[in-house]
Design goal:
Number of domains: 2
CATH architecture of the largest domain: Beta Barrel
Shape: elongated
Distance between the termini: 84 Å
CATH superfamily of the largest domain: Nucleic acid-binding proteins
Order of helices and strands: HEHEEEEEE
Strand content: 25-35%
Radius of gyration: 28 Å
Helix content: 10-25%
Mean pLDDT: 78
CATH class of the largest domain: Mainly Beta
CATH topology of the largest domain: OB fold (Dihydrolipoamide Acetyltransferase, E2P)
Largest sheet: 5 strands, mixed, barrel
Strand order of the largest sheet: 2-4-5-7-6
């Protein structure tokens, strides 16, 4: 067999393997964002697929049992039971009424099996009130300017 043909076959195998690995990796890491309503409307077709679901943590629903954390996300009247079994600790902002995103898969029992949780506390990220409404802050009435010494060009 010709050396160029052998080299061409080897290169085709290497490139083909890399493309196959890349496509498989993209398929496994692809995550779709869905609302709770959209996820529930998908029915059985949502089971086993990877999703990111967002909502507010229902007050009083957080239950910790060892490394597992169970809670309920809600959006309006729609609710979703979530079980987190990830290895990362939960964020400090994960508490009642916090906005949360759960990455994982919907189980056959309708419980969302999360392996990653992101949370933010709505009050922590609210906009600051305008400066004029703050009575406890001292606002300087006069701003002094600092003069810079003039640079003179001198010949020595």
């Amino acid at each position: 067999m010709n050396t160029y043909v052998k080299f061409g076959i080897l290169m085709a195998l290497i490139v083909g393997s890399l493309v196959w690995l890349a496509l498989g990796g993209v398929k496994d890491t692809k995550t779709y964002y869905k609302t709770i309503t959209e996820l529930q409307q998908m029915g059985k077709s949502a089971q086993g697929r990877k999703f990111r679901v967002g909502g507010d943590v229902e007050p009083g629903s957080i239950k910790k049992a060892g490394a597992q954390v169970c809670f309920v996300l809600h959006q309006g009247a729609q609710t979703l039971n979530v079980v987190y079994t990830g290895s990362d600790p939960l964020p400090d902002t994960f508490r009642d009424n916090a906005q949360a995103l759960a990455d994982g898969r919907l189980g056959p029992d309708g419980v969302f099996q999360a392996n990653s949780i992101q949370a933010k506390c709505a009050s922590k990220y609210e906009a600051k009130p305008p400066h004029g409404n703050l009575s406890h802050e001292a606002v300087p009435s006069k701003v002094s300017s600092v003069s810079q010494p003039a640079l003179s060009a001198g010949h020595s």
